[in-house]
Amino acid sequence: MIIVLRPGSSKETAEEILSRIEKMGCKPLYMPGTERVVLGAIGDERVLESLQLEGHPAVESVSPVLAPYKMVSRELHPHDSVIKIGADLEVGSNQFAVIAGPCAVESYDQLDRTAEVIQKQNVKCLRAGAFKPRTSPYSFQGLGGEGIALLSRVSKQRKLAVVTELVEIADIDLVTRTVDAIQIGTRNMQNFRLLEAVGDTDRPVILKRGMAATIKDLLLAAEYIVSRGNPNVILCERGIKTFEQVTRNTLDLSAVAYIKQRSHLPVIVDPSHGTGVRELVSPMTRAAAACGADGVMIEVHVNPSEALSDGKQSLYPDQFAALMRTLKPVLQAVGREL
Amino acid sequence: MIIVLRPGSSKETAEEILSRIEKMGCKPLYMPGTERVVLGAIGDERVLESLQLEGHPAVESVSPVLAPYKMVSRELHPHDSVIKIGADLEVGSNQFAVIAGPCAVESYDQLDRTAEVIQKQNVKCLRAGAFKPRTSPYSFQGLGGEGIALLSRVSKQRKLAVVTELVEIADIDLVTRTVDAIQIGTRNMQNFRLLEAVGDTDRPVILKRGMAATIKDLLLAAEYIVSRGNPNVILCERGIKTFEQVTRNTLDLSAVAYIKQRSHLPVIVDPSHGTGVRELVSPMTRAAAACGADGVMIEVHVNPSEALSDGKQSLYPDQFAALMRTLKPVLQAVGREL
Amino acid sequence: MIIVLRPGSSKETAEEILSRIEKMGCKPLYMPGTERVVLGAIGDERVLESLQLEGHPAVESVSPVLAPYKMVSRELHPHDSVIKIGADLEVGSNQFAVIAGPCAVESYDQLDRTAEVIQKQNVKCLRAGAFKPRTSPYSFQGLGGEGIALLSRVSKQRKLAVVTELVEIADIDLVTRTVDAIQIGTRNMQNFRLLEAVGDTDRPVILKRGMAATIKDLLLAAEYIVSRGNPNVILCERGIKTFEQVTRNTLDLSAVAYIKQRSHLPVIVDPSHGTGVRELVSPMTRAAAACGADGVMIEVHVNPSEALSDGKQSLYPDQFAALMRTLKPVLQAVGREL
Amino acid sequence: MIIVLRPGSSKETAEEILSRIEKMGCKPLYMPGTERVVLGAIGDERVLESLQLEGHPAVESVSPVLAPYKMVSRELHPHDSVIKIGADLEVGSNQFAVIAGPCAVESYDQLDRTAEVIQKQNVKCLRAGAFKPRTSPYSFQGLGGEGIALLSRVSKQRKLAVVTELVEIADIDLVTRTVDAIQIGTRNMQNFRLLEAVGDTDRPVILKRGMAATIKDLLLAAEYIVSRGNPNVILCERGIKTFEQVTRNTLDLSAVAYIKQRSHLPVIVDPSHGTGVRELVSPMTRAAAACGADGVMIEVHVNPSEALSDGKQSLYPDQFAALMRTLKPVLQAVGREL
Predict the structure, then answer these.
(1) Closest Cα of chain A to D108: distance in Å?
(2) Backbone angles phi and psi of D81, in degrees to 5
(3) Is the dihedral of CA A211, A214, A217, A219 positive or negative?
(4) Which of B127, C25, C259, D154 gives the lowest tally of CB atoms within 10 Å of its CB?
(5) pTM (2 decimals)?
(6) Would you give the DSSP letter of residue C72?
(7) Residue A243: its chain D contacts at CB < 8 A?
(8) Which residues lie below 8 Å from residue C249, measured CB to CB, with a gap of 6+?
(9) What is the mean predicted confidence (pLDDT) over C240-264?
(10) In this structure, what DSSP letter does residue B315 have?
């Protein structure tokens, strides 16, 4: 850790801080410069976090040398984690994971017909929300427990793995019993109690990046889950909030490439929320595959023009089929398969 | 609601959409232009939300005419809401509300001494967190239930109203029993279940703006609470995420002025999180007062250089005293008092 | 154009505005609703821009129905524009354009050796800056006219097309005489005089997106050039400013897919500035190819660790060779070639 | 300067870098830690910029200890700079500078009548644009040289100082001859040649913050001007681009307080562009005064509903009069006067 003192800080102040560093078990360093005094701390600097040196009136800035996350880091665990969802999907392997389905469970018929559409394309995991976090209280809020029951029914009948979003600890048993993977949505990426709760299960967790979350924030959110004992975390890039408004969010594909270099966790992409525009889903899926993502999560609806939510970004069945056709050669080009 | 069709859309498509609009009870309008066909819907367009017309393949864009929030809007309720916290604080009135205290409850001694500091400045409401949402799992997470107990003890002894953050529905009874107002933090602004839960109480709620939340998102989050039956919502501007990094967030004071014109709810400002820099707290508090905010929430600590969290942005007791001195004439200038 | 009036606006006000619309040659529409009066204008609404109706005190909002750009729009010109740079490069065709070279011309030796590196990979266009816009006045500012002379020399000797950035109208003759395409940098995307000046030449222009420019802003900047008579504009996505700081910018690849649908102009991607991180350049180049970009502009340096600028994001010769190898199958997968 | 090496970097690499640091005249420091090797450079680290150590393949990160700007810094020049515009305005002094006028010069009548409006409020400096940078080529582009002539005429007749924007070096003599201060607009904040050109004059320069410029970028842009020999730079906060869209930009008043602590240059605020909404101009002007700004630049128009540009954000004459009335007590509260 590197600590820069404000101009005019006394030798005594520096010594006080250095002795606090030493007490925490780090080796202190004193580096007086021409315009600033710089202090260093060598050792496991994460223990210094509790000193909260940024709060000291003589401190101008504190720069950690190490990343604040550990268990999700490739330094600790150099090989790619492979996480199974259901019997047939290995996320993080050579297999490119396609998870698809409607934004929300609306009815048995809608869910089953959409499941049929994706199964025809050899997709092995269905996504659909039963608990829908909606910006407005007047929007469709999902079918709740009834939606979970429908998901379970379709999953069993079709032998399809299923993923759904968990928004509240109270529902964790219901959801865990039913689904093959739990989704933590963008608005809950920093709902730390919820992260701890799924960290106490052994279910795969798809953790979506918060709209205002840096990559570091995302990795620290994953660290919450992993450090509770659940190593099965799949990160999901789904766009961040920027000034650009023709897309719903700005899909940050560099984040995928960046995280793949720093973390052993699999990373998938949600081009549906990431763009919010049906016509952009297919090109961005291909781009995700080309930059090294381990999979995608795509909204497909048997009839988007009558969807109760997110119709604007849902693919029609024939669009989804066309996407899968054009995706295959791109995957081959980067050494992956469906 | 104004619906613009894509170029080349047929008359039949337009008629299909118009008949769906009519079925929902709105008056449909057909406006063929030279380059685009535009459709209109007159009436309570909020009922049209369920049509999800954005999802229709022939629709280029949908622009609502009305704001999506109702109960929090000044159009429905033109007069300022005044919300009482404890016996002595009327937020939204002529009284400028100052809520102050440490980021977190750390110990009885720390809390009580900080309470003494703010009480000396005639502050009537103490803030302090017992449940701390922290970006890293390795940071201090708050004292939890023990922190609530300490808050309760200091509150009673000093006859000070108290505010604390609620992060999980499971704690709602404990928190509601103890505190005079509940804070919903920035990371939970769109934790809709939590909003509904506090909406089912009658306790004042301080709702902090999410880091990536637009003003509209914030007002819709408030609508969640108010539409459940709890009208006692105080909005809190606390900075948004932008590319600027020398401040922790970018404090958006225009949001205060904007919301005061559109909503009857009181708006306060958190200059501590809004800037993240101790030296900026005092000027931004004065600015908040000058632009029409109904109050501020400020981090003060009896000894910031030893705070377990947010020390960097906490005021020292003498800085807080100086701020209160300089704040008074500004309040007078805008016709308010402490 | 759709004009929403403020609540309480009188019939007279509406009529006054409608008569102004009619005088401009558009057909006025009056649509009184239950809570708002909405006005419409049918016809070439771009002529209404001069009315500046947003400034009217009774107007709540003005929403154009049509895009504000015309000549760059696919509606006017449905087929892809193909723009030649030098003898061998056709940007916007089936050929995927790779433009590569150092950030800045540093010396004959550095430029020529880098040119050799890219030519070995069959690259047909060299990029290098002679006039360098640098954030700090204390950074290397480029070799200026001398740099242009070196570019010209290497270009002739190696029969390589060259691109360089123009930052000031005074240099336009010098630059136009020498290079095959002119680059307008991100900081000058809204330097409208400079846009007009290059619009008066017939030289291909690579127009980089401004760091805070929306896609609409970028297309309007291109419209400045095209409307002056120069149709040879190549748009370049190079990242926008967001809160994410581990990358220098956030590369917005959705913008590529979005623009390709709305505009006939070719779009290329600059993954070097877009990420600012050497290790991310190759995956993002592949992603650019996969999402439909017409080419890339990449920083390559014969020895990045001694580059005078942007060394951090420049590829080493062997990294560039490896990238070209892995790019080929991706291009094939999307039906393109080098 | 602090240099963190990548894991696994060899001792030889560290020594190579340290010897490059030593050759530049800085004292090198070697700090091997448990997980990373950290290097330090003590001395005038600005000379190390030319080493471009970020480009070295073994370097993980480079953190400067000092700010990259010098001449504009308070460390070099601790006292407030006071800059005169015309005979009567001292920006940076106890006098709060109000600069007001229409967005653009439209006609003699419009300019003179608006000048009368502001002069009645005792304003000493008129602003109006003759060269207008407009996002669309189809918008009103300003009267150019004729506008400058009108400004000159009104300035002389009314003995009012005038400010106008310079967008192109070719106009610098014309503008410098006529106006009392030169404005560099937000789109030209990093038009470094233009900065150098105004740096070669002795005219006061109002430098507006770029829409995507950090505070550091703004101070470095000022450094361009000051380091050419013109110390008369007034910084202007005018809002940055964020995801919030109900305001045209997000006015960053914390930037004012932050800069006042780090730089001796005066800082003014443009609440008109900063918000883009007429109703927000007055509260944000009061906030600017309260947080320590040295003045404001406000758009006032004799009849905003017929303005050729920016009518939406221009004050009506009576609104401006009301603002000046309410501003006075706020200024008094912070120890300033008009």
Answers:
(1) 38
(2) -80, 135
(3) positive
(4) C25
(5) 0.96
(6) T
(7) 241-243
(8) C211, C238, C239, C240, C241, C242, C273, C274, C275, C276
(9) 97
(10) B
